[in-house]
Design brief:
The protein is an alpha/beta fold. Helices cover 45% and strands 13% of the residues. Bound molecules: D-serine (DSN).
């Protein structure tokens, strides 16, 4: 950062501060990850200088011979990694990717059926606060009150009653395997299209640690920066028959010039995710989530759905008489960063919440395994058992800082060719 330190020391200090935070704290935010130096090198490269509206070999600018190679590689690697017929790697974010699918296949006012945001779904799946909930007539399935797992029977009954044009499947705070095959059957029964948003679990799918929706869904959208451990951005997978339509919606429909540096970094990410080392990483994320979940359960914490099958779980703090907001703030002061989260049927507002969401992608990237999850559970429990005690929070923060020294923040990826 020598040049930046000279040119803009204030921003250089912001970046150093963030680097220290990421190094000294245990980050359990389920949607974040720490990328490799190779991904950062591509992201921070001169490819950011290039305009390349269009697609490889069909650009509106000259001089695209190198960025064409980057985009073609990203597309081919993503198709191979997920076994898909077509891939568009230009969407700048997961919400834009979802919007591109909707705008390709739906008209304003069409009915969509997605997972309830407060049960673990996503804003862009038709939530009232999102434009997707305003443009379309959106309906929501959710989880059962008894098990807190997706109520597939309810989803089927709703689909038969509502006859949606598209069923949207995917979640940002749901801890169990999603049965994509069952949703395909429901979609077929009512003649609906099926879109699955695997932003959270894409890395697990790539690693074979969660079933893939690709054989079942008409469209699969995802971000690249969560469990997949790539740059911030997104992509769309679809059947060949929709390829031209999707590409045309992304550009020129929704976006202008694609970020070619980010597309190159996506190519690096897809290459890294196709290694045996990444497959082991994906499985270890799940083992760590299960271990942390069990350790907290053994200390009397109530886990939504009782356990986890993926990279995250929710803790219901109602029986501890603390809110998610207070728990998340106290833990952050103690060097453990996570987010407050509504639990299904929560009586608290989304700003307060009754729960916290815990995810293991980052601690796994740093090389932590099951035994470290026990230590993390102990620190969480000590802080939450005496939530007003700021001296204790400082003491835990010191212990966490010391502990974190042993775990690097950059994954060292062994490329296999
Ligand atoms: N904001 C992301 C998350 O934390 O789950 C979803 O987009």
């Amino acid at each position: 950062m020598t040049a930046l330190m000279k040119a803009d020391p204030v921003i250089a200090r912001v970046i150093s501060g963030e680097e220290r935070r990421e190094t000294e704290k245990i980050i359990l935010i389920a949607s974040e990850n720490y990328v490799s130096q190779a991904v950062m090198d591509a992201q921070g490269s001169i490819l950011s200088n290039k305009y390349a509206e269009g697609y490889p070999a069909k650009r509106f600018y000259e001089g695209c011979e190198y960025v064409d190679q980057a985009e073609s590689l990203a597309i081919e690697r993503a198709k191979a990694l997920f076994g898909a017929e077509h891939c568009n790697v230009q969407p700048l974010s997961g919400t834009v990717a979802n919007l591109a699918v909707y705008l390709t296949m739906l008209k304003p006012g069409d009915r969509i059926l997605g997972m309830n945001l407060s049960h673990g779904g996503h804003l862009s799946h038709g939530a009232p606060a999102s434009f997707t909930g305003r443009i379309f007539e959106s309906h929501h399935y959710g989880v059962s009150r008894e098990t807190y797992t997706i109520d597939y029977d309810e989803a089927e009954t709703m689909a038969k009653r509502i006859r949606p044009k598209m069923i949207v499947v995917g979640a940002s705070s749901y801890s169990r395997i999603i049965d994509f095959e069952r949703f395909r059957r429901i979609a077929d029964e009512v003649g609906a299209l099926l879109m699955t948003d695997i932003a959270h679990i894409a890395g697990l799918v790539a690693a074979g640690a969660h079933p893939s929706p690709v054989p079942h869904a008409d469209f699969v959208t995802s971000t690249t920066h969560k469990t997949l451990r790539g740059p911030r951005g997104a992509f769309i997978l679809c059947k060949k028959e929709y390829a031209d339509l999707i590409d045309h919606t992304v550009f020129p429909g929704l976006q202008g010039g694609p970020f070619m540096n980010i597309i190159a970094a996506k190519a690096v990410c897809f290459k890294e995710a196709s290694t045996q080392q990444f497959r082991e990483y994906g499985h270890q994320i799940v083992k760590n989530a299960k271990a942390l979940c069990q350790a907290l359960k053994a200390k009397g914490y109530e886990i939504v759905t009782g356990s986890t099958d993926n990279h995250l779980f929710l803790v219901n703090l109602t029986n501890r008489e603390i809110t998610g907001r207070d728990a998340a703030r106290a833990l952050d002061r103690a060097g453990i960063t996570l987010n407050k989260n509504v639990i299904p049927f929560d009586t608290q507002s989304p700003y307060v919440t009754s729960g916290i969401r815990i995810g293991t992608p980052i601690v796994t990237t740093r090389g932590m395994k099951e035994k470290e999850m026990d230590l993390i559970a102990d620190w969480i429990d000590r802080v939450l058992s005496d939530i007003e005690n700021e001296t204790l929070q400082k003491q835990v923060a010191d212990e966490v800082r010391e502990f974190c020294r042993g775990y690097p923040t950059r994954p060292v990826v062994l490329h296999e060719d």
